[in-house]
Amino acid sequence: MTVLRPKRTPTAPVRPAPSASSSRTPAQRLLGRDWRLAAVFTGPTLVLVAGLILVPIVSSVVTSTTERHGAETVFVGLDNYTALIGDAVFHRGVLNSFVFTGYAEIFKVTFGLVAALLLHHLRRGRAIVAAVILLPWVIPTVVTAFTWRSLLDPIFGSVNVLLTDTGIGPALASLGLVDRWPAEWLSDPALAMPSVILVNVWKGIPFFTVTFLAGLKAIDGHLHEAAMVDGASLWQRFLHITLPGLRPVMIVTVLLSSIWTFNNFDLVWLMTQGGPGDATAPYVMVAYSKAIQQLQLGAGAAVTLVMLPVIAVLVVLLVRVMRRSDLPGADDLGRRRLTPPQRRALPWVLAAVSVLVLAWAAPRIAWKAALVLAVFVVLAALVGRLVSALAARGNRVAARVVGGTGSGVALVALFGFVLAPLYWMTVTAFKSDDQIVARTGDLWPAPWTTEQFTNLFTGRAFGTWYVNTILVSVASTVIALVCAALAGYALARLKFRGSESFTVTILLTYVMPGALLFIPLYRLVSGIGLNDSLWSLVLAYPTFTLPFATWLLVGYFKSIPADLEEAALVDGCTRFGAFRRIVLPLAKPGLLAVALFTLTNAWNEFLFAFVFITKDDYKTLPVGMQSMIFGDVVPQGQLAAASLLVSIPVVLMYGFGQRFLTEGLTAGAVKG
Length: 672
Fold this sequence. Notes:
- It contains 34 helices and two strands.
- The protein has helices at 26-31, 35-63, 79-83, 88-120, 126-133, 135-138, 141-151, 159-166, 168-175, 189-218, 221-229, 234-262, 266-271, 283-293, 297-306, 308-324, 330-337, 340-361, 363-392, 396-429, 433-438, 451-458, 462-493, 499-510, 518-527, 534-540, 542-558, 562-570, 575-586, 588-604, 607-612, 621-626, 636-656, 658-671; strands at residues 66-69, 72-75.
- The longest helix is centred in the middle third of the chain and has 34 residues, at 396-429.
- The termini are far apart.
């Protein structure tokens, strides 16, 4: 039997399908698949960042090697730097910056953590309480400064009156916390710095509270339940679960806040102008005095550049912490470098060293700050110990009552601390000049009057300042929003060489202080004839609005599923069409959050407007309000009315945009 088999025909060898990389052009293999489109999307941001931040920094280095002799500028090498070695004013400014930052951060961390814990355990009304606590952070710095300046005024302010009537003021004097009573808070060299620190803490607590509250929500609740089953006390759970869980958020928050506080200019200038003497003048004010008031741009630039290593250390630490979660195995690597006892001891060692340095730098403030903190810590520890003891004995009802009472008292105290200055500003705006001078109706105007608002618009250029602020804020917001949306999408979606480096550069420029840029930008706007022009502010404001907007939108665009765009591309849509029709509509919360932040930052900005603008017709609200003060003549009522009018738009924007703000920031924080 013959078996028929099919005849085999020779087949050609199977060739592998060409890979995607082999189909790319040499330029695509070198620069990345999407380099052409990426160049278009990132081009505007790259030009602005390079032209307004990177180039001015290089220009500042060159300027620091020059000196003005009459109408000529001559090269002097390192003379400006060597002159700082024996400059007592510079030494005092650097010391003031470290003292101001160190003590402010200690109190902001402490009270921010306490406020976050109170809100975290609050069952009802948490959103309302959080919104109220956020108010000091929302309102402009100029409003904060003038409100507290009015409160602390030894003649017309209510702080001395309230402390005297309650007996607290004389007790403070008997304890040595103040040298004499009634106290001259801003004109006494021993009290001026603590007073400015207090105001910075008041304004900074909301930022710490919100970030710590987000960190507390991220901690797994099962850890606390397991610890309770094992018999861990409240303090033990806080020490071994809460604090370790908050460590990443706490590090980022403290580093960011330290950078901002160390380079603070507007709050100190508006409250004390660095006085009395140079008791509160930070290094930024020393640079301003040399560069702008004395017209020695080289000496001023040298002051800012000498402090650049300090800022650079903080920035590098911030970048490493923020990027660590993106690097696989980074946490394991850190654990292998340190043993468990070393990891536990390191934070305490750093804290001890910092406290010793601060005690050496400002011994008169150190023991006062330690006493204030000790009182709050002891009270909290006593309440916690009492609650734990009652719970251990099985008396859970009493433990719940004691804990609730303690939390309620703490919340009331926190509310009073937050709202008292805002209430004072509001009622002062509706007092007549006679009521303010005669000190009648301190807490309730009798009668209420709109006299201050009428005088504000009839006798001053307040309406012009308002229009200028709106124009500059809207223009800078539009520029930041358009450029950031394009660049953020490119960094989140497109493949091109250098995208990671560009993202890091954006983050670095985001935390770059304005103190480093105002001198070279002042030279830039002077060179092109834009002094005393609103265009100078529109040109300068992207230095702090654009990097933040881009960084936030990168994270938000990454949170949008890429499958939607790929489906649009398959259907024949171009990449730009997918960006415009698919991504932008889905990114509305992120875009609104960015618009809100950039608008309010531009609305509140003081340093650039103060340096660039001198004519009344072009001043913005913060600078215009500062110019209302003539020597020792302070129009308390008109400043209060102006503060109220400046704050209302910002508060309303945050109120209406809170939902979009939360959604946009959450998505950006997860992926950014």
